[in-house]
Design brief:
13 strands, alpha+beta, rod-shaped, single chain, 1 helix, 136 residues, five-stranded mixed beta sheet
Length: 136
Amino acid sequence: MRRIRRVLPLLFLLATLTLLLLNSCATAQEFSLETDLQDGMVQPDAACTFYLALQYGDTVVTPEVACNGVLLQKQDGHYTAYLREGDNTISVSAQHEGNVFDRTYRVVRKAEFAFDADFSHLRIANDQITFPIGVA
């Protein structure tokens, strides 16, 4: 009988802790991001317009979005980043109820048309300037 009296409070404590743990797991929330950005995507144009929505559980969270360190503003449900030639970084960050969200996307701008001019063979004749040009 004494053994049961000693074990009973421990069993009660164990049951209480189990219920608290199960309850906290059932109500755990996390960030969810919806976007049409893709890491490593190649973009031919300087202007890159994309959709991005962030939530924490059922709560809409307004993130801080930047391209190469320049903050972007959401307009008409979309962000527009102006890319430089080559690698660009679009970062998304937010905080909600002490929880932190950070995600980074690498976007490459590769123009579809580029040219290389060689001015070493520049000619001026009859009010016209001529020089060879190569198209890549």
